[in-house]
Each structure stands twice: as structure tokens, then as C-alpha cells.
């Protein structure tokens, strides 16, 4: 662990990423005092304020505060992401928010792409080359994926359905396991990201029952091996 990570963890009890996020929010709150006021009055949560701060300005902050106050946090995140993607698409650009180590990894990948091209190419051309290389390597695996699983992911818009998660879905999970007699019906399958599927559901920390996609009951924070234990329940 680098010295900055040790300092942040020991002195503040938070990882470097969390410290950076809080510092960025504090800077934005000076520009948007109404957002700070909404947090103090507990009309919106810290996480909602952090999301709004990335997108709002003085003209739009009031509307976003009012809207976010009546929405689940995950819906605020997805709506803001959709707006951002639409705006960037219209400009023919895109932005990526990533930890510094990922930025460094991307810079190395761009450097490798330019070296392979033998000339100076734009960031977009670098991404195109990297994506083409990825597809050339993984195409047999991607094309070999079961069509039913693809349909489940498409139905769920490619997103993990665990409440509060905004990650892309990787797997179609059988709500009633096939080993327990569960069917391959679409109503018995739900889209999950790899972390929530492999470490959450299959390690016993998350339980999901009901009928997909809208008749599900989630038990989050289950203590594995302890019957009926749970931290929170969600239905949707």
C-alpha cells in the first residue's frame, strides 16, 4: 500500500478514493451553497449530493435537489449517467471518471497502441485499436455465449438488478437454482454483476426470491449460515 493510502487509512479511516471524493464534493459545495444546505437539512443524502455536484450548476441545482429528494439514489445515478451519455454522444465525445491507477493503465495502453500503429494517433483511434484487438482475441468466447443469457441481460438493460448497484451485468442468475429444480424460464432468471453473483449470492450474503423482473424480494447483508438473518429487505 503506498504511503498516501496508509496515511488516509490510519488518520481518517477512509481509503484514498473516498478522501478524493469528499474533497471534490467540498470544493463543489462552495460553488453550490444550496446543495450544502440541502445536505444539512437532510433533504438529500451525501451520495445524492455527490452525484448532483458532478452535473449541476447554479441554474439547475434547485431542480435536481427537488427531483433527487423523491428518487432512490440508484435512479438518480442512472438518470444523470444517461443525460451525460446523451450530451457526450451529441458532441462526439465521452468522458471517463476513473481512479488514478486506471488512468495510468489507460495511458500505457494508448502508448502501446501508438507504438503498434507506428505513428501518432488520437485517443479515439487508440481506443478503436484496443477494442478491435480485444474483439479479435475474445470473439470466439463472446459469440459462444448462450443466447438465452443474452436475452436476460438485454431485458434488464445490461445492468445488475441488485438494489443500489449500477454496475454492468455479467451473468444471468437462476433465482431457483437448476440443481434445486429451477427452470430456464425468463421469470426465473435475473441479471447480476460478477461480484454480486459470485460473492454475494453464491457466498450466501444476498438472497433473492420471487419472479423476475419486477416481482423480486431481496435480502441484503445476510449472515451466511444463520437462518432468517438479514440487514435489509428490498422489494421491486
Write up this protein:
The protein is mainly α and 236 residues long. The protein folds into three domains: 89 residues, no CATH class; 44 residues; 89 residues, no CATH class. It is built from ten helices and five strands. The strands form two sheets. The chain has a three-stranded antiparallel beta sheet with strand order 3-4-5. The chain has a two-stranded antiparallel sheet with strand order 1-2. A hairpin with a 3-residue loop joins strand 3 and strand 4. Helix 3 runs antiparallel to helix 4, helix 4 packs antiparallel against helix 5 and helix 7 packs across helix 8. It starts with a helix and ends with a strand. The model has no long low-confidence stretch (mean pLDDT 82).
What structural category characterises the helix and strand content? mainly alpha
- The beta-strand count equals 5
Profile the largest sheet: 3 strands, antiparallel
- What is the typical, i.e. mean, pLDDT? 82
Tell me the β content.
5-15%
Shape field: globular
The stretches of 5 or more residues where confidence is low (pLDDT under 50) are none
State Rg: 21 Å
Side by side, the strands of the main sheet go 3-4-5
List SSEs in N-to-C order.
Answer: HHHHHHHHHEEHEEE
- Tally the helices: 10
How far do the termini sit from each other? 40 Å
The helical percent reads 40-55%
Amino acid at each position: 500500500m503506498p504511503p498516501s493510502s496508509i496515511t488516509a487509512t490510519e488518520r481518517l479511516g477512509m481509503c484514498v478514493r473516498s478522501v478524493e471524493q469528499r474533497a471534490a464534493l467540498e470544493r463543489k459545495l462552495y460553488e453550490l451553497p444550496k446543495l450544502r444546505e440541502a445536505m444539512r437539512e437532510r433533504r438529500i443524502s451525501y451520495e445524492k449530493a455527490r452525484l448532483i455536484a458532478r452535473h449541476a450548476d447554479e441554474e439547475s441545482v434547485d431542480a435536481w435537489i427537488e427531483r433527487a429528494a423523491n428518487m432512490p439514489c440508484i435512479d438518480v445515478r442512472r438518470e444523470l449517467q444517461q443525460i451525460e451519455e446523451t450530451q457526450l454522444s451529441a458532441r462526439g465525445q465521452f468522458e471517463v471518471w476513473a481512479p488514478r491507477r486506471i488512468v495510468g493503465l489507460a495511458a500505457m495502453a494508448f502508448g502501446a497502441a501508438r507504438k503498434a500503429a507506428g505513428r501518432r494517433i488520437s485517443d479515439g483511434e487508440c481506443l478503436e485499436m484496443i477494442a478491435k484487438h480485444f474483439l479479435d482475441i475474445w470473439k470466439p468466447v463472446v459469440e459462444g455465449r448462450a443466447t438465452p443469457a443474452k436475452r436476460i441481460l438485454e431485458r434488464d438493460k445490461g445492468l445488475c438488478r441488485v438494489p443500489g448497484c449500477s454496475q454492468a451485468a455479467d451473468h444471468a442468475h437462476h433465482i431457483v437454482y437448476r440443481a434445486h429444480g429451477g427452470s430456464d424460464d425468463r421469470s426465473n432468471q435475473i441479471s447480476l454483476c460478477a461480484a454480486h453473483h459470485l460473492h454475494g449470492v453464491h457466498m450466501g450474503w444476498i438472497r433473492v426470491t420471487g419472479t423476475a423482473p419486477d416481482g423480486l424480494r431481496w435480502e441484503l447483508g445476510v449472515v451466511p449460515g444463520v437462518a432468517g438473518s438479514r440487514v435489509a429487505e428490498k422489494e421491486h
